[in-house]
Amino acid sequence: MTSAREAMLERVAELDAAHAQAVAGGGEKYVARHRARGRMLPRERVELLLDEGSAFLELSPLAGWGSDFAVGASVVTGIGVVEGVQCLVTAHDPTVRGGASNPWTLRKIFRANQVAAENDLPIISLVESAGADLPTQKEIFIPGGRLFRDLTRASARRQPTIAVVFGSSTAGGAYVPGLSDHTVMVREAAQVFLAGPPLVKMATGEDADEEALGGAEMHARVSGLADHLAEDERDALRITRRIVARLNRERPAAAAATAPLGHAEPELDPETLLDVVPGDLREPFDPREVVRRLVDGPGPGNEVAFDEFKARYGTSLVTGWARLHGHPIGILANAQGVLFSEEAQKATQFIQLANSSRTPLLFLHNTTGFMVGERYEQGGIIKHGSAMINAVANSTVPHLSVLVGASYGAGNYGMNGRAFDPRFLFSWPSAKAAVMGPAQLAGVLSIVARAGAQARGQDYDEAADAAMRAMVEQQIEEQSLPFVLSGMVYDDGVIDPRDTRTVLGICLSVIAGSPDPGAGPYGVFRM
To answer: Using DSSP, how many helices (H) and how many strands (E) does the chain show?
Structure first.
């Protein structure tokens, strides 16, 4: 076993353990209580909703990791196929504090709704939630209104929204079925009201019965909020599938014209991706070895697996054209880490070419950022890096990003990091992202402190400096790890490298069904 494989397998095992925490929900006690009520778990509901044998691309599964809240943030979000239609699905997890929404729940759902909006996906909400997590209401109440805004705007875009209520949907949560195009409620289980019996008693003095106040039967027969009354959970999911089947969601003509060709398997086995990235990211590796394990091999209509662009110029950035599961794609992948002026100019031209041919772009990150130093500043690294960032920011073709290794400083921006809104962004367990590497950041602080002591005419405490550097390096190392960033919803998930081709294939399939905005204008390029 290679040292790279051994190191990556250790990280994958850590990833599996983190995912297991999310799947566990509120723990055995609360899962057992939920099952005793005859209810299904959120992922079971999703599985029954989706077409049999189809894939489910879960998004942000580690949201809330490292926080005071449960991993997964009490909600499951992802993309799956229902009656042949790709849909964005959210499912509350009632085993975690009754499915109450905390600050990370909001961030996760907002990100899911953004994915749905950008890719024109119907939204299916599988609802069973106690509403807002009251101890953190100050962090939820103001931004939480965006959930209502997103649902109404989706409807206005003719992007269907469906709410399926399995249990409680109270207070602000009542507006999820209220604002959805289609609403399904489960008899003797769903309860939808702005205020439950205790609050009604406090506000009006009325003694209200839960069923009369907000039961599914009442909403189906009296208020009219329920469009469909389901006998049980399985019936609710059958009705939901029927609704999707009648949405008349046809594949856009533009997407049909770019339907993927047949594809060949990669030249090299994706299993061996575990052998490519060294355990120590300071060791260089050839990104072509990653590319050759991701993209389609040679075949009809695809004579060359990876058609490299400007192979001899700006060699620390590899660019070229390929197909992935039959979809055309342009690839930018860092080699040796540093971006020089040549790499920035090469990237700028390549991105413009991709926009001219309407080709989606894949960014594979392993960069320490743009080169610094007197020679490079005089050579125009700022304006060349700015041109690359301009090209990325104003590119209108869909972007995908995978953090394979390091993603530091403005290199993260130039390679289409989260701030630049790629359609999807995933991380490998080997990834790290920060303003700069831990040793460099600690060294900068040391130099500044040393200069300050010298200016004051004081002796410099070398022992304290060594302790400070060690502390800062450890802190930055911890903060730059992929689980931390994924927990903050700065990516769409940490994935096993061996799953990358499948994940990207699903993403490209989703993108192919969304409207093509066409090539847009660029800002001013400083020459």
So the answer is: 20, 17
Contact, 370 vs 344, CB < 8 A? yes
d(CA 258, CA 238): 32
Q: What is the pTM of this model?
A: 0.92
Tell me the per-residue pLDDT of 376-416, one tens digit each, with 9 for 90 and over.
899 999 999 999 999 999 999 999 999 999 999 899 999 99
| Residue 480 scores a pLDDT above 90 | no
Contacts of 55 (CB under 8 A, 6+ apart): 80, 81, 502, 506
Average pLDDT over residues 448-460: 82
Q: How far is CA 283 from CA 270, 337, 488, in A?
A: 21, 10, 28
CA nearest 415: which of 346, 476, 502? 346
HEC assignment per residue over 134-180: HHHHHHHHHHHHHHHHHHHHHHHCCCCEEEEEEEEEEHHHHHHHHHC
Instruction: Report d(CA 228, CA 224) in Å as an integer.
Output: 10
Cα–chain center distance at 435: 21
